[in-house]
Amino acid sequence: MSIKNLILNKAIRVILDGNRAVSTLPSVFAALARNAISSFPALRPHQRHAWHAFLVQLGALALLRAGREAMPEDEETWRDLLRGLTADFPGDEPWCLVAPPDRPALLQPPIPGGLKDLKNAVPTPDALDMLVTSKNHDLKSEVMMAAEPDDWLFALVALQTSEGFLGAGNYGISRMNGGFANRPAFSVVPTTGPVSPVRRDVEALVALRKTEGASTVYAAEGGLGLVWLRPWDGATALPPSELDPLHIEICRRVRLVEEGGRIAARAGGSKVARIVPIPGGAPGDPWAPTVTDKDGPRILTVDAGGFHYRRIVRLLFEREGHALPVLAATLPTDAEEGLVVLARALTRGQGKTEGWHERRLPISRTVYRALRTRATDAIGRAATERVALAGEIQNRVLKPALLALFQNGPDQVDYQDKGANARARDLLARFDRAVDATFFEDLWAEVEPDADPDAVRTAWVRRLVNGVAWPLVVEADAGLSKAVGRRWRALVRAEAVFRAGTRNPKSDLPKFFPEPKRDDAA
To answer: Considering the entire predicted model, what is its pTM?
Structure first.
C-alpha cells in the first residue's frame, strides 16, 4: 500500500475555521471553496505562491475535465474530481507521496529503470526545496529532521513548479525567462468576503477557457495537465503542443522513498529540461507579468530590488512594455472593498538566492473601478509623474546638498567625488524607502473624485522636500566631525545647494516652490 495517499489520508496541516486541523487534499479544496482555511502552518513564506498556483491549476484542471464551472464545497465531490484527472491509476499512485518508482507519485514522474539513476540522497525537505542555503546565513540547511508529510509536499511543489537552473543536469521550469530568472506573481487578491483567493482564481480560469481563443503554443484540447504522469528517462523533453495551457509542470527527477518509517528523497540529473524551452519563457502563466522589447515578449524577471514602487507603477499601469497577467485584472465577481494587489517573487542568482520579495498593495475603490473599466490612463499618468518628481527631489535636491556637505561646502560641487558619493548612498536609499512606504497611499489620495489634485500633489512634494529630504541633510551634518567654522560653512552651503535644487529650471519642481513675491513698496 502506497503511503500518504493525499486523496484519503489526512496529511496537510491547516487552520480551519480558526482551529488547527489536518486535512486530505480533497477536504482542503472543499474548505477553500467555503473560505474556511485561513492558513497552512507548515507553509514557508517562499512557498506561498507555488502552493497557491498548484492548488488553482489543479482545481481548474479538475473542473474543466468534469465540465463544471464552480468549486463544490464537499470533500467527496472533490475526491471524485481529482481522481477524474488520473483515471488510469485506480490505486491513486499519482496522489501519493511515496509510490513504486515505475508508477507516478505526486509531482514525481515514473523513473524507467528504477531508482539506481537517482544517486543523490536528500534527507530533509529543506534540502530538497528550491532555496540555496549552503552558507547557512538567513536560513539553515538540512534542519528539518522531524519533518511531517506536508513539509515534503510543500518542498516538492516549490521545487517542481518554481525552480530554475542550478548546474549541469539540474534544469528549471519553462515558465521563466531563462535559468537564472524566477517565476513572479502579480495578481488581485480578496482579503475579505466569502470568496477565497483560490476559489476566485480557479473559477476565473475556468470561465476564461470558454472565451479565449485556441492556443498557438499548447494543445487545443485534451492536453496533458499533470506532467508527472508521464515517465521521464531524463533524456526526452515534452513539446508544449502536448500540454494543457494550465499544466502543472515538473522540472526535476525526484522520488520520495520510505526509509525506516520516515520519508526521504532521491534525486538525479537530466540531460534536457522536462519541457522544451520557449525563448522568453513559456507563455500563459496566469500570474506572471510580461515585458515586450525589441526581442519580443518575455516573462518578467524580478531582480534583488524586488517590488519597488517604480516597478509596481510600470506593472500596474502597463508602462514601458509591461503587461499584466490575466489574474491581475479585477473581475465582475470581485467586491469593491478588501482587494489588494499581491506581488511575489523569489530572486535567484547564479548558485544563490537573493531574497524573497512580497508586497501587498491595498486598492482604493476609485482604483478598483478604474481597473474594472481599464480606465487607468489618468491614474497611470499621475503615478508616472510622481515617480519622476521623487527622482528629481532625490537627484537634483538631496544628492547635491549631501555632496556639498561632505565636501565641506565647496564653491562648486564635485559630482565625481567617490568618497562623498559613497557617504551619500545610504541616505539616498533611505529617502527612496521613505517615498516607497507611502507612495501608493499618497497617489490614491490625489485621484479620489473629491480631491484637489494640484493641492494634494503640492503637499506631497513639499513633504518629501521639507519633511523627508532636508532632515536627512541635518542628520548627516550632525554626524560629521570637523571644526565649528568649517561645519557651519558646509551646512550653509549645503542648504543653499538644497534650496537651489528646488528651483532648478530643468526640473518640474519650481512650480511647487515659487519664488517669494517682492514688496515693491519697500
So the answer is: 0.92
